[in-house]
């Protein structure tokens, strides 16, 4: 989930501080250019270290960055190596932190891969080549494990997202990833999904995505307590009112006076707004939480909805805002109309279009809540990824509220 993107993406260089599996600091390597600028993408960093220095590394975590926001620039990572190699002296210091993820410590990725190997063995499978590290940051560690012509995908997430495996398991039979296994420590191992990531989906594919999501959400109406037992966050009316009020309070110093006034008025009116939304007739259910086209993978004939770690409980149309972000303008009304018809077919007498309209600023403010939750649960060196996001989404919420007010005149 990104709030803004720069028009020109600067290049990235990676500086690696090396440690052995017992945590002993070996030293650092000179910065090396890498192909992809996004800090959490580390497959190109591993490849560059092998090409430039002839060593195999596992990237553990971000230590520091020269720029104040991603992507690009010089980025320093902690990287694990099996044995010491020649390296320059490093004057920094590694310190423990209670919010650090296990996969960000020496030995952590190996433990995750050992778990994945045991799960695969239970299915009569074994890796046919060395696993490939794809991504690591405060929200996930991702590995691709070759299985002949196919691959398994290992994803490990922090505790705040650790319900992902439980949700995918509960959604078995729907268009979600096929699980090899999951555990209570945030590990999920899934089968390869044919096709492509659908950031550039056609209109027909976009409409099919909406249908797929609504089918899943409709199947969980009246089953909210099961979702609570899985540990999903609560974004129902009263709970989300409180969380939005809290993020506005905690972020107020980063906002202008006009934005603060607009958002305080919004917070005060939230209970009445939720009552009006409730009167539109759609009950709370499963919310994907980050349902945009890029989180679908597939072909013309088959779609799979990925990335359930951001899921929660709330109004189903909370998902519409993220889906429409960046959408080609000529598609928007067609998609909204389709979304409306899909819910009307399942909940007669409801008013999905009105609910979506009322929910738009709430859905935007919920994203500030999400990023505040991330920041509260990650160590300081990794907060740079999300540091500006709560304020950014609240500014966007204030701007939307002013636009709504002007249009109502």
Measured by DSSP, the beta-strand proportion falls in 15-25%
CATH architecture classification name of the largest domain: Alpha-Beta Complex
**Span from first to last CA?**
33 Å
How many strand units?
15
Unreliable sequence segments:
1-6
How would you describe this structure to a colleague?
With 409 residues, this protein is of the alpha+beta class. The chain has three domains: 84 residues, no CATH class; 88 residues, Phosphorylase Kinase, domain 1 (2-Layer Sandwich), CATH 3.30.200; 212 residues, Aminoglycoside 3'-phosphotransferase, Chain: A, domain 2 (Alpha-Beta Complex). Helices cover 39% and strands 18% of the residues. The chain is built from twelve helices and 15 strands. Strands 1, 2, 3, 4 and 5 form a five-stranded mixed β-sheet that branches. Strands 6-7-8-10-9 form a five-stranded antiparallel β-sheet, with helices on both faces. α7 packs across α12 and α11 runs antiparallel to α12. The N terminus is likely disordered.
């Amino acid at each position: 989930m990104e709030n803004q993107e720069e028009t020109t993406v600067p290049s990235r260089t990676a500086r690696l501080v090396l440690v052995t599996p017992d945590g002993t600091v070996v030293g650092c390597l000179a910065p090396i250019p890498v192909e992809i600028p996004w800090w959490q993408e580390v497959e190109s960093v591993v490849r560059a270290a092998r090409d430039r220095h002839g060593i195999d590394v596992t990237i553990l975590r971000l230590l520091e960055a020269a720029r104040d926001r991603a992507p690009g620039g010089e980025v320093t990572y902690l990287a694990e190596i099996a044995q010491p190699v020649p390296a320059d002296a490093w004057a920094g210091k590694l310190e423990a932190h209670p919010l650090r993820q296990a996969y960000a410590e020496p030995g952590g990725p190996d433990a995750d891969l050992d778990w994945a190997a045991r799960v695969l063995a239970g299915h009569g499978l074994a890796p046919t080549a060395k696993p490939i590290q794809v991504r690591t940051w405060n929200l996930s560690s991702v590995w691709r494990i070759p299985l002949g012509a196919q691959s398994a995908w290992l994803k490990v997430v922090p505790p705040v997202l650790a319900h992902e495996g439980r949700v995918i398991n509960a959604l078995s039979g729907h268009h979600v990833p096929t699980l090899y296994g999951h555990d209570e420590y945030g590990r999920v191992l899934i089968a390869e999904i044919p096709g492509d990531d659908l950031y550039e989906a056609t209109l027909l594919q976009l409409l099919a995505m909406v249908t797929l999501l609504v089918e899943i959400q409709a199947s969980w109406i009246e089953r909210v307590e099961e979702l609570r037992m899985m540990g999903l966050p609560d974004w129902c009316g009263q709970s989300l009112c409180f969380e939005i009020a809290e993020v506005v309070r905690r972020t107020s110093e980063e906002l202008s006076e006009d934005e603060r006034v607009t958002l305080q008025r919004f917070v005060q009116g939230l209970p009445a707004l939720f009552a009006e939304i409730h009167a539109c007739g759609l009950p709370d259910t499963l919310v994907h939480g980050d349902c945009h086209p890029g989180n679908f993978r597939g072909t013309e004939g088959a779609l799979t909805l990925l990335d359930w770690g951001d899921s929660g409980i709330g109004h189903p149309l909370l998902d519409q805002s993220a889906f429409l972000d960046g959408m080609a303008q000529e598609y928007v009304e067609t998609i909204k109309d389709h979304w409306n018809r899909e819910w009307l077919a399942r909940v007669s007498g409801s008013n999905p279009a009105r609910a979506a309209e009322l929910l738009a600023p709430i859905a935007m403010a919920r994203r500030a809540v999400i990023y505040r939750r991330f920041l509260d649960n990650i160590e300081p060196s990794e907060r740079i990824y999300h540091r500006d996001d709560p304020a950014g989404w609240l500014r966007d919420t204030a701007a939307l509220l002013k636009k709504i007010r002007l249009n109502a005149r």
